Amino acid sequence: MERIIMHIDMNAFFASVEQQSNPALRGKPIAVTGSSTRTVILTASYEARAFGVKTGLTMWEARQKCPELIIVPGNNRLYTHVSSQIMKLLHDYTPLIEVFSIDEAFMDITGSVKLFGSVERICHLIKSRIKARFGISCSIGIAPNKLLAKLASEMKKPDGLTIIRPENISRTLEHLPIKELCGIGRKMERHLLMMSIRTCGELGRCDEARLTGKFGIVGSRLKQMGQGVDNSPVVPAEDAEEVKSVGHSMTLKMDIRERVDILRFLLQLAEMVGRRARRYGVWGKTVHLTIRYADFTTFGKQESLREHINLSDDIYNAAVKILDSLELTQPIRLLGIRLTNLQHQTNQLPLFPEEQTRLKLTEAMDQVNNRFGDFVVMYGSLLDQEGKGSHVISPAWRPDGIRNVAVQ
DNA sequence: TCTGGGGTCCTAGGACCC
DNA sequence: TCTGGGGTCCTAGGACCC
Question: Could you tell me the CATH number of the domain that includes residue A195?
Fold first, then answer.
């Protein structure tokens, strides 16, 4: 039986939430940015987009395009809250919901159509309820699979509804540029263009051996994508795979090169990573340190440990050890720590008393921080640190930051 | 006055073991 | 005096998504 898949995408989500919560911003060109001075535009309102302001521009570039642009530093708690409420609302129409990012979701509504009458009616209900309750418009795509549903929702913005019916698939794809497909980025587009493949129609007709010869196993998938074939299921949170890594990185206000400065930021990052790992109940065996130099060259070094860890100072010590194995050649612009090779929910008690004390201390700090906000309690050396972890979440952030946590 | 942040997946080479 | 083949783990880097 043909599936009916919906992709729903909130329009200019961060900006819409801001305009909704502050009426003075409504109808005005606004842009939501990160909190630091060295940041980019995360989302622009449609009024700002009319001037050419878009995601990824620097603040300076955005102001060039639109001098009256209102810059709003992002408010992650607010977006998180609204997102969770919207996802909860969507559950009225099917339990088969895959939260794809903070402002996007896939829904398998195959079994819901009969109940609500028609696909169009479900879409109308969802749109009007989200508009009425949150003041946000959304674009909806309907198709027999996720690939095409996502494509469909992109076709009309804002406030769009696009349905790709099975009989229209090949007509829709024939002249569609390949980069419109989710999964074909800049590099892949360039490779395909060099093979004289410009449209999905051409990709779908391409000899599979030619594609696999060049791209390996990705080749067969590419051909399928060109044909609009995608059998991947909508995976609800409770069935999703467990998270595989936990990390944080930050672009620093100024480039640094002094070891003491680097250590201060590493401690802060280790605490952010550790606290999140502990909240998820994961332990990691590998610590990865990322460094970006002033000239933007970026590299990483990782080290696997003998044991799984998630205490902040263990993560910190591992990161420092990696740092000490490097020969830095330039001032540092960005630092990042990521914990990978994760193990889930192994509640073994530490053997030694001093370990138990350390664990208890950490738990107490976590409790205070979870209750009163980030970095209320922290290590002494972080006290004079600026911007303590108050960075803006990315649009890729998922509610609760983890895939397999069900939306309440 | 340049260029954010959190993830996943894939590849490729080397070490090491049987 | 030649040089297997499979498997796992580790590391580095890149592409892609939002």
Answer: 1.10.150.20
Asked whether residue A127's C-beta has any atom of DNA/RNA strand B within 7 A, the reply is no
A235 occurs within a structural domain = no
- Tally of domains in chain A: 3
> pLDDT at position A355, please?
73
**Residue A401 falls inside a structural domain:** no
Contacts of A142 (CB under 8 A, 6+ apart): A4, A5, A6, A119, A123, A149, A152, A161, A162, A163, A164
Q: Find the residue closest to B4 using CA and C1' atoms.
A: A39
Q: Pick the closest to residue A6 from A118, A132, A146 (CA basis).
A: A146
Q: What is the CATH number of the domain that holds A130?
A: 3.30.70.270
Question: Between these two residues, A28 and A408, which has the higher pLDDT value?
Answer: A28
Based on the fold, state whether residues A276 and A300 are members of the same structural domain: yes
| Domain presence at residue A183 | yes
Residue pair A332/A255 in contact (Cβ under 8 Å)? The answer is yes
Domain-embedded: residue A398 = no
- Segment A276-305, tens digit of pLDDT: 999 999 999 999 999 999 999 999 999 999
Smallest Cα–C1' distance to nucleotide C13: which residue has it? A299
**Residue A250, token pair as written in the block:** 């930050």
Structural domain containing residue A142:
1-164
* Strand B close to A56 by CB, under 7 A: yes
User: Across-strand partners of A101?
Assistant: A104
Q: Are strands A104-108 and A97-101 parallel, antiparallel or unpaired?
A: antiparallel
Report yes or no: A383 and A391 within 8 Å, Cβ to Cβ.
no
> pTM to 2 decimals?
0.89
Query: How far is the C-alpha of A138 from the C-alpha of A148, rounded, in Å?
Result: 17
Pairing of strands A138-143, A282-293: unpaired
How many residues comprise chain A?
Answer: 408
- Going by the DSSP 8-state scheme, the letter that residue A4 receives in this structure is -
How far apart, in whole angstroms, are the C-alpha atoms of residue A91 and residue A109? 11
The first and second tokens of residue A45, run together, are: 């309102």
Give me the amino acid identity at A284.
G
A39 touches strand B (CB under 7 A): yes
- Spacing of A215 CA from C10 C1' in Å: 25
- CA A229 to C1' C9 (Å) is 35
- Sign, Cα dihedral of A395, A399, A404, A406: negative
